[in-house]
Amino acid sequence: MNHTVEWIISEGLTEYEDAVTFMETRVQQIIEGKASEAIWLLEHPPLYTAGTSAREQDLLSVNRFPVYTSKRGGQYTYHGPGQRVIYVMLDLNRRGKDIRAFVKALEDWVIATLDQFNVKGEIREGRVGVWVERPEIPKRPDGHVSEDKIAAIGIRLRKWVSFHGISINVEPELDHFTGIVPCGISEHGVTSLVDLGLPVTLHDLDVELKKTFERHFT
């Protein structure tokens, strides 16, 4: 069954608090049947967010960027220019009330989108988000191939309507991630599409996100 989903693309940088206010309002409207579902694509100025599982010791640079407490699941994340943030406001009342299946659909959507750029995104047990192997980087001390995170996922549900969502690194300043332990994982790094040698723009990513969406959210 098809549902109308509004796609919103914001130019420039959107303040985090403004984004949360918009999502809170839109989710309530979806719950009340007054607005359609929405996918919102945007960029934030440099900032850190602390999810519901964030540990104080994982904030390494307290005064580097503003820190916002978020009610989404997960730990510390970074948002900033060059990173595509995808806020997902979908009604799971109409899409099956299965949080695990929903998170898997988000992961599969990211992986399918990355595949359009010949990037093999992968899921790792116990590590939320999407990862890429880096065989060109020296192996880890345990002998395993190095892996870097390219996308983070953290959502919240209210009456089975989702908000918050996904961030995919297109061309952010990777040094900005060093102020936190991203998602509580210190033994792996962070990468981006441009860091992988791909001249991809936010617009390029947006086109593929929209193209692959229907495959995972019908």
Write a concise keyword list for the protein shown above.
alpha/beta; 11 strands; 218 residues
Explain what the structure shows.
With 218 residues, the chain is of the alpha/beta class. Helices cover 22% and strands 31% of the residues. It contains 3 helices and 11 strands; from the N terminus they run E-H-E-E-E-E-E-H-E-E-E-E-E-H. The chain has helices spanning 16-31, 99-115, 202-216, and strands at residues 5-13, 37-43, 47-50, 67-69, 76-79, 83-89, 122-124, 127-133, 147-158, 161-169, 189-190. Strands 1, 2, 6, 7, 8, 9, 10 and 11 form an 8-stranded mixed beta sheet that branches. Helix 1 (16-31) links the parallel strand 1 (5-13) and strand 2 (37-43). Helix 2 (99-115) crosses helix 3. It is globular. The mean pLDDT is 92.
Explain briefly what this protein structure is.
This protein has 218 residues and is α/β, with parallel strands linked by helices.
Taken from the alpha-carbon principal axes, the silhouette is: globular
Number of helices: 3
Query: Given the helix and strand composition, which structural class is it?
Result: alpha/beta
Task: Give the SSE order as H and E letters.
Answer: EHEEEEEHEEEEEH
Q: How confident is the prediction overall: mean pLDDT?
A: 92
Q: What's the alpha carbon Rg, rounded to whole Å?
A: 17 Å
How many β-strand runs?
A: 11
Helix content: 10-25%
Q: Catalogue the unreliable spans.
A: none
**What percentage of amino acids are in beta strands?**
25-35%
Main β sheet profile: 8 strands, mixed
How far from one another are the termini?
A: 6 Å
